[in-house]
Amino acid sequence: MIPELGHFALVLALVIALVQAVVPLLGAHRNRLALMAVGRPAALGQFLFTGFSFACLTWAFVVNDFSVEYVAMHSNTATPLIYRITAVWGSHEGSLLLWALTLSLWTVAVAVFSRNLPEAFVARVLGTLGWIAVGFLAFMLVTSNPFTRLIPGAAEGRDLNPLLQDPGMIIHPPLLYMGYVGFSVAFAFAIAALLTGRLDAAWARWSRPWTTAAWVFLTAGIALGSGWAYYELGWGGWWFWDPVENASFMPWLLGTALIHSLAVTEKRGAFRSWTVLLAIGAFSLSLLGTFLVRSGVLTSVHAFATDPRRGLFILAFLVAVIGVSLLLYAWRAPKLAGGGSFAFVSRDTALLGNNVLLSVVSASVLLGTLYPLFLDALGLGKLSVGPPYFEAVFVPLMTPVVVLMMFGPFLRWKGDELMPALRRVAPAFVASILIGLGTAFAVGHVSWRTVLGLALAAWVVLASLQLLATRLRERAGASAASRLATIPAAWWGMWLAHLGVGIFIIGVTMVGSLENNLDVKMKEGERVEFSGYTLLFRGVQDAPGPNFAAARANLELFRGDVDIGTLQPEKRIYLAQQMPMTEAALDVGLFRDVYVSLGEQLEDGSWIVSLHYKPFISWIWAGCVLMALGGILAAADRRYRRLAERRLPAAAVQAA
Amino acid sequence: MPADRFLRALRGAAFIGGCLLVAAAFAADAPTAKPLVADPALEARVLDLSHKLRCLVCQNQSIAESHAPLAVDLRDQVREQLAAGRSENEVVDYLVARYGDFVLYAPPFKATTLLLWLGPAALLLAGAGWLAIRLRSREREAAVTLSEAEHRRARELLAGNAAVPPSSKEPRS
Q1: How many Cβ atoms sit within 10 Å of the Cβ of residue B2?
Q2: Which residue of A109, A192, A267, A565 could cross-link A124, Cys pair, CB 3.0 to 4.6 Å?
Q3: Mean pLDDT (whole number) for A183-210
Q4: A456 plus A521 within the same structural domain
Q5: Are B139 and A235 a contacting pair at CB < 8 A?
Q6: Which ipTM value was assigned to this complex?
Q7: Is the dihedral of CA A87, A93, A98, A101 positive or negative?
């Protein structure tokens, strides 16, 4: 009964979404307030019904209703409650429902926090979001209904994929989806602006906090996913250039370009049509990513053959979204040309240059991700495109991005003199190269990769410090503390996020150059020396879990004579699917992780133990945290709220 | 009794300390575990190469990462051949002859991968060209001059007491 209610709620949500898609747009077109006003309640209604539907599916998982096919496929009575709940988004149908729920959440947020925007504009934004919701809800109801009954019901469920039974599953997909779907708001703002024909600094100012918020979620989501892969997959890799990862990385790259382009549009009125194009691109890549990951097409292009309806619907939807928005763009964009003029040497150019580079990187990742699919579909043979390809493309393209990223802020808007600007940054630049070389020698790993990475990181850190010093000097007079206080949050956000890139590069370079690993056979009572540490093997015991059997090893970790602690890696067999899993154990430190995973037991009774030494790996995630914090600061800048406050008294005066 | 509790705590601490000492001494005396492979230098080469080879039956994992029997088997083959004195390239050629290009994570440069390998460079050139054209046309553009009314409006906006934009029509309800 409850699954049917959920199904019914989903149908109602679709109907409301249709109303939200049609009526406000019509109202904006005809300039009728009554029709425009339908947008907000429709958004709320759609959210409530999608939420109810989501709750029904969750309920089916909680009570182990194996007469629902989706539940029977992805849950088990022995699965712990928390993973029964997260199993809701563990596969195709449920993750689409999460997508739809996230979209309706963003829509309601827009409806609530857009009281100060012109009604017609809000109506167009909500209408556009409504069309996206219609697409997703219809897709779910036509091809991927999570509430489909299994008759007769199964006695026992098949359990959730053991890889997904991890705390990472609780938070990573919702965060990632908040990011993915958040770009739909930027997209809707861009479409609304194209429809209005009014693309100005005000529009950029309205859409900036939304876009930055989505970018923050996406950054956090990707970082969490990477951390999860790091400890879950058992050998300590943190990024694999897997198509699933690329699917979230491409919108991130384009979204990064977008938030910078929006900054220029707001400050200088320039790049307007480019900004719109980026907003369309970032959201299109989000859509593509969702479908790539969830359609199964990545494992095999023939996955579509098993259910051609899904493939056709996806293609039709993608073509409709991208086609309609590009048509609209082609029609309206020529009118947008112009904006602020700027000289070749200017901050504007630096930003535009990095925008182009980021777009090229994003397009190259797309090329590498889709190339094997196209080749296979055309019958030209099977091919793998993996890390060697992506690294060969990524590193040369991102190096100038990082250099320009720290040079741009030293240039003035609109126009600057090249030589004085170069002189300003030259000392830091030369110092970074020397530091890169020196550090590489000091750590005893001189390769071009290490030198390049360390030099780039030094450049980011040094230039950040210089930038802060310059900024403080500009406000002469008052005390240092009060000068610090006058710097707006948005500037701190920029500064922190850029510094985060530097910290991130340190982590990537150090772990790539200096990581070490060793596989040993260990019996109880044996020890092993490894990267300056001693590990003592204290044997293996049984450690059964709720839905798995496990062997848990005890390894005592020493640094010299100091006992650091016990590491307990596990080897598990998940009972429902008889699937083996390794649970690595980590000693996390500021400057290194010691990472241990347990392998097979050999015939002589000893165990294979994999030891990994991962210097500076935490810095990778620390860098991501700084980037996300920077985004939060930028989105929370007072001037967005000040704008709102300023409008209120003005409106009050009018009303009086 | 505080003194009693203190003594007990002290004894507890001494016990833990003693255990640690014993453990440390034990660690130093314990027999050393044997590495899984006899030749760590060879193993480093095996691992390096394994990261570039796809486990054919897994979902996008290299044979270095996967625990699947096929991956283990391929790793053993790589080790054997490298140990027999073959070069990395020879091992790769051998595996490609058996399993096709699919086994390589770095696709070979040939007719069907031309677009893949040259694509990013072409994209970069296109982007740079577009950028150059845009910048040139922008430099030629004259700076916008504002009328007196627009200047006044701008000052109002900056002062923060502007109301609704004058261009927007009053909606009918």
Answers
A1: 6
A2: A192
A3: 89
A4: no
A5: no
A6: 0.85
A7: negative
